[in-house]
Amino acid sequence: MQRQRTGDLKLIQELNRSIILDTIRKKGPISRSEIAQMINISPTTVTSAVSELIDEGLVCEDGVGTSSGGRKPVLLRFNPNTHSILGVSITNSFIRIADMNLEGQILRKEIHPTNHLKGEDIIELILDVVENFLEQKPNKDYCQGISVISPGIVDADKGVISYNTKLNLYDVPLKQLIEERTNLPVFLDNDANAFVLAENYFGLFSKYKDLLYITIGEGIGSGMMVNGSIYRGFLGSSGEMGHMTVVEGGIKCSCGNRGCLENYVNWPAIYTRIVSAIIAQRRDTIIKEMVSDDLNNIKPNIFVEALNQEDELALEIMEDILKYLSIVIINTIHFFNPEVIILSGEIIQKNPLFLEGINELLVAKAIPTLKEKINIQSTSLGSEFELLGAAAVILHGKFKFQIH
């Protein structure tokens, strides 16, 4: 019984410490007494926790506040630069890895192509990339851990990639494998869930409690926040929006089904359609001129530029993308009723036509009471949203920073 009480007390102390650190991060510069009042914790507890946080370099004293009669209170602020974290983003084509401070500022970054590796080979490449990057890192002792994000179904609690057909990964204990290689704590999560956290920590959407995030890239990922918490589902497989059926009996998908959304909307599908139109149908398009007839150089930014120049082929493709995407989003709106829907991915960036087009279709399809409440936005995280997602996972997991 005594051991249980001791364990409970330690857990409470750790929770209080996390809440105090998070309060300083969000509200600082702030005094010890203000913290105690704000979160309803005793001044003694705050003073003890702050002393530890200062010793660890996570918090520093920063000037004095206004006196209400006695001595002027010493103000505290979060110090993100004393410690660092490693963020790793895995996609089908690239492994991005970065050394970051505790506010997600990138200090050093590398991008490694996956070279179409799958299964055990891609796992070995991930381990080598992380180990080599860490060897070049100064002040390893100040690294608080490694955060890894990946598409597919991820068991975040166990640190396992449960299901990823494109990389041929099934029940891979990636957290354990990296920890054994590096001797650092590792946090693993689904990439879209990570982006939801990042929008909350680093972006402009912290005021929303019910949120849908959709990313369009090599696949389609989505994450949901329900009443201020990430919704993972029974087996961690919530958000597999890319595998909703939009064409009955359509294109065969890697998941085994046919007609899945991601086979019509992801970048490989868009690229294939552009190349097929140019070669097989001999379509006239400015995309050919933009890449000097080298079709290998067609990238998402080229497609977006062609859209902005009102290229007929690009507009035709986007019309179909919006048609299929709107089917899934409107079904999700009617079922889930999110406050805001956030879109990210290279075909979204600098592409106002996309947001205008999808909003128009959603308004047309929504039930009357929702028409004026549809709120669809592009990501506020910019081009580094993947690594910011990785940073958010470790801040949430290790420091227990709270969703706003």
Description of the structure:
A hairpin with a 4-residue loop joins strand 9 and strand 10. The chain has 404 residues and is of the alpha/beta class. It has helices at 2-27, 32-39, 43-55, 119-135, 174-182, 191-201, 262-265, 267-279, 286-290, 300-308, 312-336, 352-365, 385-397; strands at 30-31, 59-64, 74-78, 84-90, 94-101, 106-113, 143-150, 153-155, 160-164, 169-172, 186-190, 211-216, 220-226, 229-231, 340-344, 376-378. Helix 1 packs across helix 3, helix 2 packs across helix 3 (43-55) and helix 11 crosses helix 12 (352-365). The chain contains 13 helices and 16 strands. The two termini are 36 Å apart.
Summary keywords:
404 residues; alpha/beta; 5-stranded mixed sheet; globular
Summarize this structure briefly.
41% of the residues lie in helices and 21% in strands. It has 404 residues and is an alpha/beta fold. The chain is globular, with a radius of gyration of 24 Å.
The averaged pLDDT comes out at 91
The helical percent reads: 40-55%
Main beta-sheet annotation: 5 strands, mixed
End-to-end Cα distance: 36 Å
Shape: globular
Uncertain residue ranges: none
Q: What is the count of helical runs?
A: 13
Topology:
Layout: H1 2-27, E1 30-31, H2 32-39, H3 43-55, E2 59-64, E3 74-78, E4 84-90, E5 94-101, E6 106-113, H4 119-135, E7 143-150, E8 153-155, E9 160-164, E10 169-172, H5 174-182, E11 186-190, H6 191-201, E12 211-216, E13 220-226, E14 229-231, H7 262-265, H8 267-279, H9 286-290, H10 300-308, H11 312-336, E15 340-344, H12 352-365, E16 376-378, H13 385-397
Parallel strand pairs: 4-7, 7-11, 12-15, 15-16
Antiparallel strand pairs: 1-3, 2-3, 4-5, 5-6, 8-9, 9-10, 12-13, 13-14
